[in-house]
């Protein structure tokens, strides 16, 4: 980052306007504003209307906060969808981050076959969610699924579950599938972070008599702040927007036990209640915007310091 | 001695985890060659008879050729447009850090977090007559990947020495020449990373086409598979064959671009 200040001094000599034309920004900026940001803002406005499938005939009317009151008070349980989204974000991240970190540390210490393990463990995270959902729908099937079959073969029949239809188990199954897909990805980012820590730090600590946990606590974790940060950012935004895996695995069921905000929002959209759908989306936007602004703040502060 | 036991334990953990990844793949692959009744049992045994015809059948019934060409055209066009235009934008943002440009950078960065509001996006696309056609879907994909591309590419440009620009300008290069002949070759690693990650992202995406394509002519492979599953719930042999065919392209891209994925994914985060 130090190079930047040097650059700044030097570049004064060149005509910036001519060699860095502002029109280079046009395409991304126009697309981003028109087809990303503008719909979001429009969504906020429409969330105060009764916009629905019949609006072509009756027109769209301003209804104030009616959509929001319906979300928070109706018996349709939208609130539980919001809570599910939040708890999914927290739990799925914890389930992935901690084992992935331990795994990364283990691999980093030089294990034979490290490259192969890394390639294989990363593989699930590139596959489409729909595919993973379908595969696990078959694996978690109560009668013919692979998981129950393996449990039977190991004489662990007591552990057999109705993985996707039992209310007490279904979230655990979703977390399991999500971790199956995501751990390799999180681990890869941790591995890249671990690679930047100089070996000499560990050697010095070892000479000072620090044990394994002390080394992790005082060297690894502080040096990994960047990697942890990026994992958290990716993980949180992913968790808040989660849709595919739940849609394919359970479609919100059994009953409404696994609905999240995005699945509710899609349901409302397909039943023509556009105003309600955008209201739900606006709440999600509010949550993500709050978290996003905090993260961008932290990041920009860091850059200023550098 | 203690070290040895530790190593064996570690290898065991890794092998078990890798098995957990590989066995589902194996199950899908092996069952895709079985007959309907055999595949319904989903066992890990080899098929009694290898039915390669399952694949032929699925390609016809599942409209996979159409799905494949749709997916390919969405992913290629959207990604190429986004990567090139974002590289140009990040170049100017990075080299000319005026107040406006710094603001634009953080303004675009907010898009990393925001969810796309598909309901109103459909309305906006409708206004431009872009609903239910390919350009509309491609534009939606391109717009959604802009924040990530700008973020990643800008971080990389920070490390490209500015002296190169000066030298090129002194030699009489204009902005377009400077960018495409001097800067782009240097950006190759990060551009390839962005391209691969976003290509795979579009290939895997399900939500965008779910909202934006109402006719099955526009379905990418993921949608085609899901629709096929809905229609043929008991034909697991076909479904598995369909799954294999959908996965192959991403796996090939992954194998070819592996070093770029791992290196580039983290470039923004970990270099501190």
UniProtKB/TrEMBL annotation, chain A:
A biological process (GO) of this protein is: transmembrane transport
* TM helices/strands, residue ranges: 23-48, 82-107, 119-140, 179-198, 219-240, 274-296
Q: Which UniProt keywords apply?
A: Cell membrane, Membrane, Transmembrane, Transmembrane helix, Transport
SUPFAM superfamilies (alphabetical): MetI-like (SSF161098)
Show the GO cellular component annotation of the record. Answer: plasma membrane
Where is this chain primarily localised? membrane
Q: Where in the cell is it found?
A: Cell membrane
The cross-references to Gene3D superfamilies, in alphabetical order and at most eight, read: MetI-like
Q: Which Pfam families match?
A: BPD_transp_1
Membrane topology, as annotated: Multi-pass membrane protein
Location of the ABC transmembrane type-1 domain: 82-295
Q: Does the keyword Iron-sulfur apply?
A: no
Family as reported in the entry's similarity comment: Belongs to the binding-protein-dependent transport system permease family.
Q: What is this protein called?
A: Raffinose/stachyose/melibiose transport system permease protein
From TrEMBL, chain B:
What the entry lists under PROSITE patterns is as follows:
ABC_TM1 (PS50928)
> Can you tell me where the transmembrane regions are?
12-33, 72-94, 103-125, 137-157, 178-203, 235-256
Checking InterPro entries in the record gives: MetI-like, MetI-like_sf
* Pfam families, alphabetized: BPD_transp_1
Q: Which GO terms describe its biological process?
A: transmembrane transport
Residues in domain ABC transmembrane type-1?
68-257
Which UniProt key words apply to this protein? Cell membrane, Membrane, Transmembrane, Transmembrane helix, Transport
Q: What is its main location?
A: membrane
> What subcellular compartments does it reside in?
Cell membrane
Name the Gene3D superfamilies on file: MetI-like
Q: Name one GO cellular component term.
A: plasma membrane
- Record membrane topology: Multi-pass membrane protein
Return the similarity comment: Belongs to the binding-protein-dependent transport system permease family.
Name it.
Raffinose/stachyose/melibiose transport system permease protein
